[in-house]
Amino acid sequence: MENNVQVKASEKERQDYKKQSPQEEFQSILKEAVAVLGYSDEVFQFLKEPMRFLEINIPVRMDNGRTEVFRGYRAQHNDANGPTKGGIRFHPDVTADEVKALAGWMSLKCGVTGIPYGGAKGGIVCEPRSMSTGELERLSRGYVRAVSQIVGPTKDIPAPDMYTNSQIMAWMLDEYDHIREFDSPGFITGKPLALGGSQGRETATSKGVLYTLQTVCQLRGKKLKGLKVIVQGFGNVGGYLAYYLHELGAKVVGISDALGAIYDESGLDIPYLLSRRDSFGIVSGLFDDVLTNEELLQKECDVLVPAAIGGVITEDNADLLKCQLIIEAANGPTTKGALRKLSERGITVVPDILANSGGVVVSYFEWCQNNQGYYWTEETVEERLKEKMYASFLAVKETADQFGIDMKTAAYVEGIRKVAEASELRGWISL
Ligand code: GLU
């Protein structure tokens, strides 16, 4: 093993990703699910766009003394069920279109899991991997100053997302506290424990994905032990998930990071890979022989878990996948065209708004603890998360069976039902 980075991945993958319109994907499945429910077109017209969308430009003094201006967004999809909730991502490919779709998915995610929030999302177009800690801190504080009027513990509660973490949440909290002039731990979730974070928040999304997979195994009479799994992505979600799967005796045969992928059909040494990963989840640079992310997706496995970016399973590669089950740990990894092809091939896709909802569920627990000023044990958090994941899975499965639809549409149906009923009760729309 040598430390020479081979960057085989992939301008092409990034271009393909940019061609997708996540918002069109969201709207198209939304329309179908509204029809399944027999709701009026009003519901679709109301839910297809966020209720509020803010575009900002953030001036940041860089280390070289010059000011760079960063484009940022905050979308609040719907607040009929409570304050809006959703992460903030720092990524070069962030677009307005994507942030709007991600906010819509958050509304549905909160609906599916029955937590009293609507959906939101934020993003900043930037390349965090080439910024210093000081620059990241100034950018994070600048974002909060720009959105401070529309966020808050009873309005809109941010959290981590792609390439943001508990330290960034801590800076954002501090900036917000200064603006408001009082301590408001419930303003943001995914905080460090010392600043009012929750036990189990950092691992929550991966644990939720794991519980989902365990539920599928249980219902299908299969064992997790020995199952061959590919995890695309080795950041917060993919990294912890690979670790738990490995611990439980599943065979993690493939993982990837933003630069490349590694595959070994006899199983990878996940603890070793985790110990060598950098803070952006990059580990493939240790190997001479790396695959691209696209090549990894097409390798043989029982379960494929896309846990990186959106739009990676498309009509172009859906027929080439060699898995039996897909669990979406990323947001929006499978396009609608791909879903159709996979369903024809009998491959079940457990949708993102169900499978990766563990993050927002424990964010909700964190917010409850902040409001109470009383903190729970890790066991309590885990037990309540497990309960929620299991109940939500069964509800979606039942809806899928009842209407004869796939699980993605069924999850939309469950999510929309909650949002639409609350919106009707408030007198905003008629179902
Ligand atoms: N960013 C995560 C998601 O996409 C978590 C959001 C939250 O905790 O509010 O679900």
Short description:
The chain is α/β, with parallel strands linked by helices and 431 residues long. 45% of the residues lie in helices and 14% in strands.
Supply database-style keywords:
alpha/beta; Rossmann fold; 431 residues; 12 strands; six-stranded mixed β-sheet; single chain; binds glutamic acid; 14% strand; NAD(P)-bd_dom_sf; 15 helices
Separation of termini?
Answer: 60 Å
Work out the strand percent. 5-15%
Describe the global form: globular
Largest sheet: 6 strands, mixed
Bound molecules: glutamic acid
Unreliable spans are 1-12
Helix content: 40-55%
Query: Helix/strand/pairing class, anyone?
Result: alpha/beta
Question: How many separate helices?
Answer: 15
Task: Give the CATH topology of one domain.
Answer: Rossmann fold
Overall average pLDDT:
94
CATH architecture of one domain: 3-Layer(aba) Sandwich
- Which radius of gyration do the C-alpha atoms yield? 20 Å
Total count of strands: 12
- What is the succession of H and E elements? HHHEEEEHEHEHHEHEEHHEEHEHHHH
Corresponding CATH superfamily of one domain? NAD(P)-binding Rossmann-like Domain
CATH class of one domain: Alpha Beta
Keywords: NAD, Nucleotide-binding, Oxidoreductase
Protein name: Glutamate dehydrogenase
Pfam family, one: ELFV_dehydrog_N
GO molecular function: glutamate dehydrogenase (NAD+) activity; nucleotide binding
